[in-house]
Automatic annotation (TrEMBL):
<dbReference type="Pfam" id="PF01329">
    <property type="entry name" value="Pterin_4a"/>
</dbReference>
<dbReference type="InterPro" id="IPR036428">
    <property type="entry name" value="PCD_sf"/>
</dbReference>
<protein>
    <recommendedName>
        <fullName>Putative pterin-4-alpha-carbinolamine dehydratase</fullName>
        <ecNumber>4.2.1.96</ecNumber>
    </recommendedName>
</protein>
<keyword id="KW-0456">Lyase</keyword>
<dbReference type="GO" id="GO:0008124">
    <property type="term" value="F:4-alpha-hydroxytetrahydrobiopterin dehydratase activity"/>
</dbReference>
<dbReference type="InterPro" id="IPR001533">
    <property type="entry name" value="Pterin_deHydtase"/>
</dbReference>
<dbReference type="GO" id="GO:0006729">
    <property type="term" value="P:tetrahydrobiopterin biosynthetic process"/>
</dbReference>
<comment type="similarity">
    <text>Belongs to the pterin-4-alpha-carbinolamine dehydratase family.</text>
</comment>
Length: 108
């Protein structure tokens, strides 16, 4: 399954993914981790300008997908946390948005 080709679906009424599905999807996202009911990763940057450029790009993706992460923004790093609060855990939407977030920093 190519997460980048998918779009988020409405969240209301979704159930959390099964643990084996979470593990399978997590394997496609380097350095992402599960903490409780959240999918998270810390991104590091050279300076504040790069940090904010990443945050703004991620905000655009979140708006387009209508699935918004919790962010902790610092001078040279951002902690990104995805979770589907309505479902009480992780759904496919979280992994779709994590993959699209990851694509922001892919370098050739």
């Amino acid at each position: 399954m190519n997460l980048l080709e998918l779009s988020c679906t409405p969240q209301h009424g979704q159930s959390p993914l099964a643990d084996n599905t979470v593990k399978q999807l997590l394997s496609s996202l380097p350095e992402w981790q599960i903490a409780g009911i959240e999918l998270n990763k810390t991104y590091r940057f050279a300076n504040y300008h790069e940090t904010m450029a990443f945050v703004n790009a991620l905000a655009w993706i979140a708006h387009q997908e209508d699935h918004h992460p919790d962010l902790s923004v610092h001078y040279n790093r951002v902690v990104v946390n995805f979770s589907t609060h309505d479902a009480g855990g992780l759904t496919l939407n979280d992994f779709i948005c994590a993959a699209k977030t990851e694509a922001l920093i892919k370098r050739p």
